[in-house]
């Protein structure tokens, strides 16, 4: 075979390799061009998780939302049972919303809808039932049938509705009094033989002696101070602390008040003393914890951190 013949036979192979190389180059370029888009999709995804894993009536549900898009701007929206709950930024592009549950609600499945960054996520949550004790209370003459004044109801309602953007508390809540717990959260009651419909014990009672210290369970701002002399017939002498982001504490039946509205308090700081003012059968402290206007069980807040 001549040299020319060998060259002619080699040319087709050379052309084939060139074509293969060009094709490979185009494929790699195509992959690289598509790669940023593929990586961007998960980054824009709305990631949602909730605690506790197995909630029961009275628990506070924490909904955590991650939005990896710094330019989104607006906070996510969280809704459940036609109620919208505020979502507060707790870290860069990380949000948290609290959803309260109460003994008056029905156990079962409920949907939590989270909207943000043009996306929607639906969480199906099973809220388990819980048995609450029944208690019979006999109020002494003069305290049976006592009704709150319009001023009292207005001040307390405004206090419980607070949703201050700033978060004051940090870590777990501490006991506001060293006395034994005499009544737990959620108890249903008969007052002087009559069942209190749509009522449940909205807090925890501590059977401390008259004059024993009442301290702030967590940091916050004193947003309510009320006295019997001002018309607080049911609550008695009362202090309300705003812990921020829809979380408030109320302390009732005090014999003494040691703070004023506007004061900033720290965990363990003295705010008053146990008493029996208002609708009370004897000396005790009533501590109620409210989340977005609804009374929740304070006990979990004492044993786990709500961030």
Automatic annotation (TrEMBL):
Matches recorded under InterPro entries: Cell_wall_metabolism_enzyme (IPR050570), Dup_hybrid_motif (IPR011055), M23ase_b-sheet_dom (IPR016047)
MF terms in GO: metalloendopeptidase activity
CDD domains assigned: M23_peptidase (cd12797)
Protein name: M23 family peptidase
Residue ranges constituting the M23ase beta-sheet core domain according to the UniProt record: 200-298
